[in-house]
Amino acid sequence: MVRELTDNHDQLWNGYSQVFLEMDDLSLARWMAQTLGQFSGHAWRLSHPLLMTYELAAHAAHDRQIWLKGMGIIPAEYTAAECCRAPLLPVLSRDVFNFGLVCKHCGETCVAFADLPEELKPRIDKWSSDYDEAHGVAHWEEDGKKLPPDYDKLFELAAQSAEKLLAQAGSELAPSLLELYPAVAWEDQDECLEVRPEDVDI
After folding, report:
1. Strand bridging mode 101-103 / 43-45
2. Half-sphere exposure of residue 181, counting CA atoms within 13 Å on the CB side?
């Protein structure tokens, strides 16, 4: 999932990206292939510094269509994603039921929920449903729902629930996907519920 750059962070993230923007296509593809090799065999937090660095490279590579042009050699254990032909590095997010697993390179669906193994669907479906319920508390006012007097307490309980569910994603669901993919990333924060990566303990 390519990070959406907000106006407040454009300049900062563009500065971080400069090292990759200055690389030629072949050097960039080679760096990414080597880093993908380091990712193999693990489920990675989206907030991990190496994955965030890779995200900057992926953004530059996608803009320049490096993988479509065949500039890089995809590591042997990876396959090409149908969405953008980059190495398949799926992201497990809270929107998995609606959008499936999302491509780390282009941000599009790379594996639809319907295409996940049958034995995993019930667990992921329940997890997604439970997460939607917790996450929805943060949007009650936007949805036109009258906030109860104890909303702050309910918000905190929802945040605690989200922390546990994100921990479950990182400790159980994402590792189970490693039987299908060489590496997986998983969402480890929820800005709406003010859940930070350091709040998610696995």
Report:
1. unpaired
2. 29
- Lowest-pLDDT range of 27-31, 48-52, 144-148, 197-201: 144-148
- Per the rule left: phi > 0, alpha: psi between -120 and 50, beta: everything else, 120 is alpha
**73-84: string of b/e by CB count within 10 Å (b at 16+)?**
ebbeebeebebb
Buried/exposed 48-69: b ≥16 CB within 10 Å, e otherwise:
eeebebbbbbbbbbbebebbee
Cα–Cα nearest to 84, from 99, 69, 100: 69
Residues 6+ apart with CB under 8 A from 188: 45, 46, 47, 166, 169, 170, 197, 200
The predicted model scores a pTM of 0.89
Q: What is the pLDDT of residues 45-81, one digit of tens each?
A: 999 999 999 999 999 999 999 988 887 788 899 999 9
Q: Determine contact, residues 123/173, Cβ cutoff 8 Å.
A: yes
Q: Which residue has the tokens 């996940």?
A: 116
Q: Which position has the higher pLDDT, 39 or 16?
A: 39
At 65, give phi and psi (nearest 5°). Answer: 55, 45
What Cα–Cα distance (Å) separates residue 200 from each residue in 49, 181, 189?
16, 23, 8
Joined together, the tokens standing for residue 169 give 């994603």
If we measure between CA atoms, which residue out of 116, 51, 38, 107 comes closest to residue 78?
38
DSSP 4: P
User: Does the pLDDT value for residue 100 go beyond 60?
Assistant: yes
